[in-house]
Amino acid sequence: DGGITQSPKYLFRKEGQNVTLSCEQNLNHDAMYWYRQDPGQGLRLIYYSQIVNDFQKGDIAEGYSVSREKKESFPLTVTSAQKNPTAFYLCASTQRTGDQETQYFGPGTRLLVL
Amino acid sequence: AQSVTQPDIHITVSEGASLELRCNYSYGATPYLFWYVQSPGQGLQLLLKYFSGDTLVQGIKGFEAEFKRSQSSFNLRKPSVHWSDAAEYFCAVVEGNKLVFGAGTILRVKS
Question: Which of A35, A101, B28, B91 is the 20 to 30 Å CA partner of A83?
Fold first, then answer.
């Protein structure tokens, strides 16, 4: 089955703790993205990566970090510097046909602060 | 920077009634436009997309959308709503290597 998987489905963070959200895709997509979703605010871009070993900050990168060591994987770390991490986190990857790109999304991870 | 406006935060329709969700974008050239649907606690599912060509686009689940350049709009429509259509709907436009999303419209379906 091809698709995007995110784990865990729910994640709890204690004060001062770093946590890592997993995102894996077996669609052979080059580009991957992380979004944060808060009620009433739509989706906001955290980081994105067009190719392996390269990534760019999105609109709200502060307090987050990423790596892209493999094409299939784009983990997101929520660091202790992110003071309001409670949100729903969505990973996406992009299918490209010529200059037309379509983003597909994983099922999401809900992060809660204890 | 581009922006996407979904004027309606909530919409309630009766089951079997028609539906139109509004989306307006700001972009000078021909935009690449998308509609996604999200059920509670789930990821986003692509309903349809517009890149070029026919301005009336057909999608999954009986949805369609019409691109109107003169109005900078890409409204989503469905002729007869089912209770299972209750969800949140997002319009999005491509900006460079990224998608810019609207704030979403929550659809409630009453029986």
Answer: B91
